[in-house]
Amino acid sequence: MPRYAYVNGRYLPHADAAVHIEDRGFQFADGVYEVIAIVDGTFTDEEGHITRLGRSLAELRIPWPVKPGTLRILMRELAAKNGVRNGLLYVQVTRGVAPRDFRFPADPAPTLVMTCRRTKWQPRAALEKGVAVVTLPDIRWLRRDIKSVALLAQVLGKQAASERGAFEGWMVDPDGTVTEGTSSNAWIVTGDGVLVTRPASNLILNGITRQTLLRLAAAMQMRVEERTFTVEEAYRAREAFVSSASAFVIPVVRIDGRPVGEGVPGPLGRRLREAYLADAGVADPVLGGGR
Prior knowledge:
The chain is of the alpha+beta class. About 30% of the residues lie in helices and about 25% in strands. It has helices at about 25-30, 45-60, 70-80, 125-130, 150-165, 210-220, 230-235, 265-280, and strands at about 5, 10-15, 30-40, 40-45, 85-95, 110-120, 130-135, 170, 180, 185-190, 195, 225, 240-245, 250-255, 260. The strands form 2 sheets. Strands 7, 8, 9, 10, 11, 12, 13, 14 and 15 form a 9-stranded mixed beta sheet that branches. β8 and β9 (about 180) form a beta hairpin. The longest helix is centred in the first third of the chain and has 15 residues, at about 45-60. It starts with a strand and ends in an 11-residue tail after the last helix.
C-alpha cells in the first residue's frame, strides 16, 4: 500500500510531501508537534494530545491551522489512507512560510503536516527483562513544557545514550535532580513503595501518558509523590520505569550500569502498564492479552 502524508489540505505520496524552504519550522524550529499511538484502530489519549497541542500553540501564539474537530477527522482519514490500525500518527504545526525574520509575521498562515506509519512497538524483551538508562546533563531551554520541534538537545542525548548501550537517557539538572528522559517521563518507586515522578512545571514536558498514569495510580490507591528526585535516590530505588505515548510504560532495570532493585522489572510498573491499556480499551500490542 502506498504511504501518504498530509500537507496543508492535501494528501500526498509520502515521497513527494514537502514544505517551503522559508517555512519557520525549518528556519527557526518555530513550531510544535504531537505524537499519538494508534492501537487496534484506537487513538490512545487522543483528547489529551489535542488539548496539549492547543496549549503549545497558545504559548507560542500560533493560530490553529484548522479547528480541533476538523483535525480529528483529518487524522482518521490519514490513518485510513495508510492502512494503519497499529502505529503512530505525527502532527506538526509551524507558524508557516514568511521571509526570514526573527519577528513574527504580521498575518501568519500556519503549516499543518501529518504523517502516519506502522510501528513494531517495543521488543517483548524490553517488557520482560527491562531496559537500561544513563544519566546526562540537561542542556535544554527553560520552556520544556511546550512540545516544541526544537529537539536538538534531545537528539544529542538520545544518541549519547545509544552509544552507551542504553535504551534512554535521563536528563539531569545542575542540582542533581532528574528532569525526564530524552523522549519520555521518568519514574521511580522508593524502597517503601512510593511512586515518584517530577511535578509538572516549565522544566519538563507534562506527558499525556504521564497524566493518565497519575490518574490511574490515584484510582488504584497507590502512594504517589509528585516531587523532584536525585540521581542518587534513583540508584537506591526499588523499581523504575519510563512512560511515553509510543512506549506506554517500559521497566528500567539499570541506571548508569547499576541494577535497580533486584535488576528485574517490578510489579508496580507492570500494573500501571496493564491499567493504562485497559483504560484505553485495547490489548497490549506487545504482550497481547484481553482488553
